[in-house]
Amino acid sequence: MTANLRLHYAPDNASLCVRLLLEELSVPFETILVDRSRNAQKSPAFLKRNPNGQIPVLETENGAVFETAAIMLWLADRYRRCIAAPSAPDRAHDLQWLFWLSNTLHAALRLAFYPEQHIAVEPDALRQNARDRIARMMNLLEHADNAHWLDRAEPTVHSFYLAPMLRWAAIYTGQTGALELTHFPRLHNFARRVESRVAVQTVATAEGLGALPFSAPRLPHPPEGSAT
């Protein structure tokens, strides 16, 4: 299938999840840098594609798609990989974890990253509360009996959503000792398995994420654009 896809991205942003999936699917796509240092995600041109002013946006032949989970689900269904088919018995299981990653873990990370956008008084208290919640969520994943995708050799759509979030928890939330993967052996093995894939190595090089972007993350050094 020939694709005409354009990913509006910034290094080490939520677009990373989509870019990893695109590379894993071997789908032809173009990247369009969104310059966060100039607040380009709030520009009139970008807002026409995503009125929320958030990255990522994927332009398709049928128009622009925003929201990370929506883009990833659309891609996985379109190319029939990395998620159970709509009629498969495991479909509900896959969807519940995909939306947990989006609505629960990702939402908590955003509170830790940008507490001042959500509360006017004592944003540091909100950040600490969010960090505590993230630690509990990581512990939940570490011991979840029904998160089988964490242990599979072949990645799923969840792999490319969770791995970047584990990275961000370790380097962007501040005072992150409790969120380091060394405390979570299952998640650490998961991160090492995902980052060993050729598609991940390609994206890590393109965005300056380092050789071990998930299991031993460091701040990025992107060749273009800014992560913040």
Topology overview:
Elements: E1 5-9, H1 15-25, E2 29-33, H2 44-47, E3 57-60, E4 63-66, H3 68-79, H4 91-113, H5 123-143, H6 157-171, H7 185-195, H8 198-207
Parallel strand pairs: 1-2
Antiparallel strand pairs: 1-3, 3-4
Helix pairs in contact: 1-3, 1-6, 1-8, 4-5, 4-6, 6-7
Question: Could you characterize what this model shows?
Answer:
The N and C termini lie far apart (35 Å). Helix 1 (15-25) links the parallel strand 1 and strand 2 (29-33). It contains eight helices and four strands; from the N terminus they run βαβαββαααααα. The protein has 228 residues and is of the alpha+beta class. Helix 1 (15-25) packs across helix 8, helix 4 runs antiparallel to helix 5 and helix 4 runs parallel beside helix 6 (157-171). It has helices spanning 15-25, 44-47, 68-79, 91-113, 123-143, 157-171, 185-195, 198-207; strands spanning 5-9, 29-33, 57-60, 63-66. The longest helix has 23 residues, at 91-113. A four-stranded mixed β-sheet has the order 2-1-3-4, with helices on one face. The model has no long low-confidence stretch (mean pLDDT 95).
Defining key terms:
globular; 228 residues; 8 helices; 4 strands; alpha+beta
- Gap from first CA to last CA: 35 Å
Number of E strands: 4
Question: What strand order characterises the main sheet?
Answer: 2-1-3-4
Strand content: 5-15%
Helix content: 40-55%
Mean pLDDT: 95
The SS-based structural class is: alpha+beta
The helix count comes to: 8
The string of secondary-structure elements, in order, is: EHEHEEHHHHHH
The main β sheet shows up as: 4 strands, mixed
> Which regions have little confidence, pLDDT < 50, spanning 5+ residues?
none
Shape: globular
